[in-house]
Amino acid sequence: MSHPRVDQLRFARSEFQRGLAGVSADDAIRRLEPMNSISWMVGHLAWHERLVWAIRGQGLSIEPILDAVANGAPASTPDLAEMWAAWQRVIEIADPFLDSLMSADLEVALPHDGRETAPTAGDQLQRITYHYWSHIGEASAVRQILGHADVPQFVGPIERQAPYRRETD
Predict the structure, then answer these.
(1) Where are the domains positioned within the chain?
(2) How far is CA 162 from CA 6, 27, 134, 151, 158, in A?
(3) pTM for the structure as a whole
(4) What is the Rg, in whole angstroms, of the alpha carbon atoms belonging to the chain?
(5) Mean pLDDT (whole number) for 147-152
(6) What is the C-alpha separation between 81 and 32, in angstroms, rounded?
(7) Does domain 4-159 have CATH number 3.40.50.300?
(8) Residue 169 has what pLDDT?
């Protein structure tokens, strides 16, 4: 069983996917400044998970396409299908690593995070979870401005998909 904090990340991911279901490729590349394009948001969250769970967590260098949507990179409007595909591949590499994390692992820096004052894995897990919620709100705003009538309401069924539970390890 995965750690309860990992369950919360997975719920945030599922809400992100739910919030973007049905967004067209054309709408995904529209940029309503100063907000980001939806396709950028998908790639950017994939970039963040790649950075933390693949690079810092496992020492893996994957998905160079995501460098274009890194923090500090210029605003862009990448192809939505390419970003979702990269996001999916990153998640497939991240999930087994996340499933291996125990409470004690969350209290130390990730094994390949060479920064002198690296945050704990738990800090990183929380940051990515909240990062999803930030972009869920941004994407919802973009969709509303674009006139989408079917924008999902948040938060979805957390009690079913990621209910509160005590740590067991």
Answers:
(1) 4-159
(2) 9, 30, 19, 22, 5
(3) 0.95
(4) 16
(5) 92
(6) 20
(7) no
(8) 54
